[in-house]
Amino acid sequence: MEISKFADEQLAGEIAAGREAVPEVDPMRLIEQVVHRARAGAGVDFDVFESLIGENDLVEINYLERGLMASRAVCRINVPAPVGDGSDWGTGFLIGPRLLLTNNHVIGSPDDALKATVEFGYELDAEGRLKRTTRFRLSPQDGFVTSPREALDYTVVAIEENSEDGATPISDFGFLRLDARTGKTEVGQYATIIQHPDAKTKRISLRENKFVKYGDEADPARDNFLWYSSDTANGSSGAAVFTDAWQVVCLHHAGVPDRRLIDGEEHWVLTDKTTAPARIAINLPVDKVHWLANEGVRISKLIADVQERIAAPGFARSTLVDGLVADATGVKPFAGTTPGESIVGPPLVAAPALRLVAAEARRRPTRHTRPANYFDGREGYRSDFLPVEIPLPTLGPNALRHGSPAKVTGAADDVLRYQHFSVVLNANPKRKMAFYTAVNIDGARWTNLERGNDVWFYDPRIPEELQNGDELYGNEPVPSKNYFDRGHLVRRLDPVWGEIRVAKQANDDTFQWTNCSPQYWGFNQGADLWQGLENFLLYNTDEEDVQASVFSGPLFRSDDEEHRGILIPQFFWKVIAVTDRNNRLYTSGYMVSQQDYALNLPFERLPVGPNSTKPGQNFQVPVAKIVEDTGIVFADEILSADVYSGPSSGRALRTVADIEHLRR
User: Fold this and answer.
1) 237-266 mean pLDDT
2) Taking the CB of residue 86, how many other CB atoms lie within 10 A of it?
3) Using N-to-C axis directions, what is the helix angle for 319-328 and 299-310, rounded to 10°?
4) Quick one: CA dihedral 194, 199, 202, 208, positive or negative?
5) Is residue 488 flagged as an active site residue?
6) Is 600 known to sit in a ligand binding site?
7) Measured between alpha carbons, how far is 385 from 383 in angstroms, rounded to an integer?
8) Where does 476-599 have alpha helices with state H?
9) At 479, is the pLDDT very low, low, confident or very high (cuts 50, 70, 90)?
């Protein structure tokens, strides 16, 4: 949790006084709040007046329905850490067509935004079951404004128009309108916060929350904030703080701990009444710390800051952000909206007929493709990536008897070039999968991008009918899984390195049907050794941040069985090449079997039997055997650098400890 920078005793005293305060009965301010409530679309009756002056806490029953409507616009945000598997989590909410608001300490830069995944609907239904979520990517190139965490700590960023799977428009979630005018609330009135604490399901804190301090006219820095008592936690950063009218009054960004100065060092009071040095307490679970209040950025101040930033010379103007400022300041409402409504969007529950139509449409396979020029400029696999040049392999007679390479528009050598990897596709209508793939991996420049919802695309450079799509993988009548997974040949993370835009491009490129091969779901999800060979070899050489080139593909055999018109491979192979600090080349070859699942295939039903790979299905083999079995011909440098010295038939691998390789 971000910690408030205001640490003096005066603030603590004002917060304590605010906890006991009842709203002031100032007629002019009361009128202001009633007008705001009416503009927000919440309605006004006699109970509202009593509530505003603190004489009752009754609200209309539509408070609950409007709260559900407002919650649709709230999402959780995941930003992968620069290295490793860690992630930073936060909350955000939609504030206009294709615009999201969160904290700067959640998304601090356009690069952070490009890595982030935004997830709507991560919440429980009425029966306590987790709902299906919808994921979106951010597009900072279409709009990005931020204020540093030490200032107003906000980020406004554009979001993609459609979800990662292409099935849901962002407009389905509506948005929460920001109003730059002041006077929406008062000390002593209630606050409501919708949030994703600790990256958990969506939560709401109700009624025990009051605004305890409203700005500070004597101090311009403090005047940017509101303080309120509530239950929030890590991950709540970026949450929306509402009035009873579901009007956003501030952006949650920090907590105010109960501080004490002991022997010249700052301590925090804990919930058990003890204290701990601040340097230790800041790392404790948030429920162990006694918090005086939470702190949020006032919307009026936030909008004013956005106006100032976008007016600065050299700022890259955005029509989306310009529209936000015009709407929030009352100059011009968003197109198609009624001015002043605090919650904008479609009805909470669609008509039954519309729900059925939408559900049916989302069940149908969608044929995703890119524009014809999408891959222009892709360099693909580089033969000079390692200190020892390694050209792409060639197709020998044993390979060509199973099909010929697909013709690629714009490539005389029929190589499909993607970001950091290449594919040569078998055009045999009974195969329609890669002869081989080749990828360069740069350990020093690797970027950890979280996997989103899988959306596979047809490559426009070859005819769609030569690419296996959802017709092979989807819609089988089984309870929870289709018979075959969409198995990556080039692992998704292998080419994901370099500058963030390039890494994201590489990540997306791996989701081409040309890089997909049918893998029985138990094999694909259970073969940890197979999936982890690249990592193991990268981290067990004598060179830190090692580079590698990896070749992989299916083994085509004459006895492969047919499923939905496609001959299913029983084996997959992999060849890995690395160099040491003396630029000496080392290679190794591997074969893995899904034979148990690719023979005697049931007709469109999940077989009874094992659901993971058996011992002895992973093998280290001579690279020469891979050449012999597949007909994929590698350069002599690959063959002569093979570290394997076992039997020519190969050696079964039980764990990575059995691998013969270059040791540290």
Assistant:
1) 88
2) 9
3) 140
4) negative
5) yes
6) no
7) 6
8) 500-509, 521-526, 528-538, 595-598
9) very low
Alpha carbon distance 385, 149 (integer Å): 40
Spatial CB neighbours of 450, under 8 Å, sequence gap ≥ 6: 78, 80, 87, 115, 117
CA 158 – CA 318 distance, rounded (Å)? 9
H/E stretch holding 88: strand 87-96
Rounded Cα distance between 344 and 511, Å, is: 35
Lookup: tokens for 445: 């420049």
Highest mean pLDDT among 236-240, 562-566, 633-637, 657-661: 633-637
Residue appearing with tokens 């679970």: 285
Check 36, 488, 563, 661 and give the catalytic one.
488
Nearest to 383 by CA among 637, 641, 639, 644: 637
Residues 6+ apart with CB under 8 A from 20: none
Q: Which residues have a Cβ under 8 Å from the Cβ of 22 and sit 6 or more positions away?
A: 53, 54, 188
pLDDT single digits (tens) 415-452: 999 999 999 999 999 999 999 999 999 877 877 776 66
CATH code assigned to 9-358: 2.40.10.120
Contacts of 207 (CB under 8 A, 6+ apart): 57, 190, 192
- What is 368-658's CATH number? 3.40.570.10
- 109 DSSP assignment: S
All structural domains of the chain with their residue ranges: 9-358, 368-658
The fraction of the chain above a pLDDT of 90, given in percent, is 40
Tokens 């948030």 belong to 286
Give 605's pLDDT tier (boundaries 50, 70, 90).
very low
d(CA 152, CA 141): 22
pLDDT exceeds 60 at position 614: no
Strand partners, 488: 516
Return the amino acid letter for 644.
Y
Identify which has the larger pLDDT, 81 or 33: 81
Provide mean pLDDT across the span 244-252: 89
Asked if 155 and 107 count as a contact pair (C-beta separation under 8 A), the reply is: yes
Alpha helices, DSSP H, located in 558-633: 595-598, 623-630
In this structure, the chain runs to a length of: 664
Greatest mean pLDDT range, 8-17, 38-47, 425-434: 425-434
pLDDT band at residue 22, thresholds of 50, 70 and 90?
A: low
pLDDT of residue 623: 96
Residue at token pair 């009218």: 245
